[in-house]
Design a protein that fits this description.
By secondary structure, the chain is an alpha/beta fold. It is 40% helix and 15% strand. It has a 7-stranded mixed β-sheet with strand order 1-7-6-5-4-2-3, sandwiched between helices. The chain has a 4-stranded antiparallel β-sheet with strand order 8-9-11-10, with helices on one face. Helix 2 packs parallel to helix 3.
Length: 364
């Protein structure tokens, strides 16, 4: 039985023979001197897909977050991060904190709490008796689509807050790029196009920077940073990883080319297949009196009956030939037992996995 552990949500695999050929994996030169062949075109295509002015490629989101937060040391600045931010973003923020940038968190997806924290910063700046000053510019950091609860962050409200204060919203959209798009509807839960969570919500802003992995829906092991053209250019000029780290392999760039072509040709069909798999799984569990959290997210976290040990059930599922994911939560406490659905799961795959799960739970 196929596994339910892979985050290749659209089922794109990119066999070597299906990719445009290349002569060498890398030129041996840093991206600051010579971007990998095809990287500029892929960056431009990704920017267009996500509704951004420009984008630059990176080896991973870790490289991009590390780079970005190494550049945010100039001027009065305060980083405000969603308390349930995906770990890679937090690792980047730790670099800024080590350099003396003040950091605080706000409750998950709570725009009201963020507004109160920003108002407090403004009040403290004005109450400084020695020298009233402008409040620090906010750099708000959030995920687009939460891996645990399956909800999209209230990006419109966040953007209104940072725009009014001359700040920035930094968005990790790795889970949503290629999955969510514009115009969601009852029969089209992921929307169209795969442009990500801003497209899904219908928001855009010149104060938005997006960092996204292509290793989820698009199945290409590289990442992008996109936003206003001048901000992207400034990032690239100051980039350390584009000087001191190897650039993305040409094979990864070719995989991104293939993924973007597949998204143009049949992306909405694949998203419809994925939605059907998620609905089939949830309905099969519901018919047995069980449930899963995550809404229409491909990552479905089981709602286990009282007294059921998630780790023990995970082991029993594996022994029955069903591979699921046992993981820690971010916005919800773990351990979480998750099934990751994909567009290439056949109906019988989903039915078989759900049946095995129900059988094990009923057998105690």
């Amino acid at each position: 039985m196929p596994g339910f552990t892979s985050a290749l949500y659209l089922g794109l695999g990119h066999a070597h023979a299906a990719l445009r050929p290349w002569e060498r994996l890398t030129s041996g030169m840093p991206a600051a001197l010579a971007p990998p062949e095809g990287a500029r075109a892929v960056g431009a295509a990704l920017a267009g897909l996500a509704g951004l002015e420009a984008a630059v490629l990176g080896t991973s989101t870790l490289h991009l977050f590390w780079d970005l937060f190494g550049q945010v040391r100039r001027g009065p600045l305060r980083i405000l991060a969603d308390a349930s931010l995906y770990p890679v973003g937090r690792w980047g923020i730790e670099r800024a904190a080590a350099a003396g940038v003040e950091v605080e968190t706000f409750p998950h997806h709570d725009a009201g709490a963020l507004a109160r924290r920003l108002a407090r910063l403004a009040r403290l700046a004005q109450e400084d008796r020695r020298r009233p000053r402008r409040p620090p510019a906010p750099l708000v950091v959030t995920d687009g689509l939460c891996l645990d609860c399956g909800r999209v962050a209230p990006l419109g409200r966040y953007l209104a807050l940072v725009e009014a204060r001359g700040g920035w919203l930094v968005l990790d959209d790795s889970q949503a790029l290629g999955l969510l798009g514009g115009g969601p509807a009852p029969g089209r839960p992921y929307g169209r196009g795969g442009g990500g969570s801003p497209a899904f919500l219908g928001v855009a802003s010149p104060r938005l920077l997006t960092i996204s992995s292509l290793a989820k829906s698009f199945g290409a092991p590289l990442a992008m940073l996109g936003g206003p053209r001048e901000a992207v250019r400034r990032f690239a000029r100051r980039s350390e990883t584009q000087v001191y780290s190897s650039p993305p392999a040409v094979a990864a760039v070719r995989a991104a080319e293939a993924a973007l072509a597949a998204n143009r040709e049949r992306g909405d069909v694949l998203r419809a297949r994925l939605a059907a798999s998620v609905l089939r799984f949830r309905r099969r569990l519901a018919a047995a009196g069980l449930g899963a959290r995550g809404g229409m997210s491909p990552v479905q976290d089981l709602e286990l009956p009282p007294g059921v040990d998630a780790a023990a059930l995970h082991r029993r599922l594996r022994e029955a030939g069903v591979a699921a994911v046992l993981r820690r939560g971010t916005c919800r406490p773990g351990p979480l037992l998750s099934f990751v659905l994909r567009a290439d799961h056949e109906p019988q795959d989903v039915e078989g996995a759900a049946a095995a799960l129900i059988r094990l739970l009923r057998s105690g």
